[in-house]
Amino acid sequence: MKKILALVLALTMVLSLGAIAFADGDLIKVGVINNDPNESGYRTANDAAMRATFTEENGYDATFYNNNDAAQQIATAQQMIQDEVDYLLLSPGSTTGWDTVLQDAQAAGTQVILFDRMLEADESMYVAAVVSDMPAEGETAVNWLADQGLDEYNIIHIQGHMGSDAQLGRTGALDAKVEAEDSWNYVTQQSADWNEETARTIVQSVIDSGEAFNVIYAENNGMARGAVAALDANGITHGKDGDVIVMGFDSDVWAMESVLKGEWNYMGLCNPMQAEKVDKIIKDLENGTEPAEKVIYSDEPGFDCETITQEDVDTFGTGVEEDAEEEAPADDAAEEEAPEEEAAE
Amino acid sequence: MTTETKTPVKKKSRSVGEVLKNMTRHQLFIPVAALVLLVLFNLIADPSFFAVSLKENSLGNPVLSGNIISVLDNASELVLLAIGMTLVTASSGGQDISVGAAMAIAGSVIIRLVCGGRVSVDTMQTSLILAVLAGIGVSMLFGAFNGVLVAYLKIQPMVATLILFTAGRSIAAWINNNQLPIVNDQVFKYAGTFIPGIPIPTPVFITILVILAFWLALKFTNLGLYTQSVGINANASRLNGLDPKMIKLLTYVILGACVAVAGFIRVSRSGSINYSRIAENIEMDAILAVALGGNALGGGKFNIYGSILGAYVIQFLTTTLFKYNVPSTALPAYKAVVIILLVVLSAPVVREKMSHIKKSSKRAKEVA
After folding, report:
1. CB distance B323–A222 less than 8 Å?
2. Exposed site from A175, B43, B150, B158, fewest CB < 10 Å?
């Protein structure tokens, strides 16, 4: 009798498991590895868009993981491959170290799609990449700066997290120019690790040492704001008609407004909205259509305080008040996801 | 603690060697020596390091500017944390590694109240005093949480505070619905920058006020004595009628208050918050400040003035390295050198060896 009961119970369990699996059957299983959403306004927008797109209503069974540390990202990616996700969506924290993950993914038949940031690997290792062209962003910014026609460029260069795609691209272009031109000099070149407060300290220390500078090239908007705080504290004028040219990157609406008001001179756009494009690529792949281009770059112009319009701010700015309601459901998803993240760690 | 600072004074004039020996034995020797070294280095390398000038900031207010002002200004948060961390270390024999994350929480609460849930405000939505008090209250609650884990559940402090260290920044983000709000109200920035008409950065005043409060508390209450005795021997102090658990808990709550004030200064500097970057790795600097101050990290006797000096030394070192364009990514390496030196010098084996060497050299002299 007991044996029969046990058998029945076991059968029920197996069947119910099967039922769950069946119910899940038509959902596309994706693992999303992104950077820390609190790192910057750019990342908050990027993460919110991903979470809003890869939902059950949209046909996905998605697991999210956020960490800036590439080592943690790699460990979680391997976990996700073992969990047999159909697609692994990656925004790598650093450009190197991903070989094993990509090989494992290929062996397991997991399709890898890069979003937002590139990594160093052969094109055959991923199906598609929807990324920002960081070297081009740097190039655009440096060309704009060269067009300003200053007699001498004494630059405070505030770098982002060392080794990240964004830092390498934005630094690379400026490094090349400073190397090539005699009139371009670094007053200092420091990494503030995307930290506004560190950026402020770096600029303050240059001011304290009395060295002359006329350009601040900060690799994201938060750090540019930190730098501007130091300028303001010392009564140094900046922006349109100011003594110091201020340059930032990313897409925050407040930064674009600063450019519009002429407090900053330039903001290089870095478009955080790749979610929809990635969604389309996956849906196409499911229908058997390979993406036309392997690497899709977002259109990323630079905005100049002389030419920027309110329309630009409305079109490209992220973190606007209206988004608050839209993002609310994404927040709930984030909380539900929390235990899984811990398990993944 | 007060007795111990007086000891060198009590001793009558002795030989130069004796005086030197007493000096090196004094608890404040290491931070003072480190500070003197840094000052000397900067004086020799470039005396303009110490230049202070009166400027006008972009709002038209007079402000003092210079490396020394920057050191005093930027060390503020660290000094506040070091004070609280010293008490926690003394009572529980361990460190709170969640102070950075707790600063993010306190800052987030303050910003949330001031912004009233909006992404960007030009005038504060709540009275600033109320917001700061709420921040302090919340932070003390989180301090109490850590304190209960350590004092009542007897969890290793570093492990207990690991919980908040891991979760704190996410909690901070959650408080503001994962938004990164901005306060454009200049009044909000007074605490982190300058009050119009006063050329000295406000954080310097806040820090002095807090130090004064602790000086009074240690002088006129039993806080110092009780903390110390619980740290030296919790059982013996319990037999003498103290409640060691309560006292440990109290030190964590006090640290919570210090953390909140530090968090307020930090968010007030920029009028914004970045949950994952605010006060990143500051817990390590706070612990280093306590160690630099000559305090035993295993608890017991303590000297908060040592930790305060330690905090200023760390900021002085950071500012000096920035001045000489040392990459900011290399800063931790320099701090590591300091930590290694400190740990090695304070290791019992090394101390024994050193006193041996001293004795044998003395004997050699006597024989000669």
Report:
1. no
2. B43
**CATH code, domain carrying B118:** 1.10.3470
Q: Which of B320, B322, B324 to mutate to test the interface with A (most CBs of A within 10 A)?
A: B322
Residues 27-46 (A) with a CB less than 8 A from some CB of B: 36-41, 44
Sign, CA torsion A52/A53/A57/A59: negative
Contact between chains at A324 and B327 (C-beta distance less than 8 A)? no
Are the Cβ atoms of A191 and B193 closer than 8 angstroms?
no
What number of other Cβ atoms are within 10 A of residue A95's Cβ? 19
pLDDT, one tens digit per residue, over B104-118 is 999 999 999 999 888
Residues B133 and B253 in one domain: yes
In chain A the first and final C-alpha atoms are separated, in Å, by 44
Task: Considering only the beta carbons, identify the residue of A193, A205, A237 that sits closest to B323.
Answer: A205
CA gap B243, B240 in Å, rounded: 9
Verify that A123 and A139 share a domain, yes or no.
no
Please determine, for residue B66, whether its predicted confidence score (pLDDT) is greater than 80: yes
ipTM of the complex: 0.83
The pTM assigned to this predicted structure is 0.83
Comparison of pLDDT for A20 and B280, the residue scoring more:
B280
Phi-psi region at A301: left, alpha or beta (left = phi > 0; alpha = psi -120 to 50):
beta
Domain extent at residue A73 = 26-132+275-299+321-344
Q: Minimal Cα distance from B48: which residue of A?
A: A209
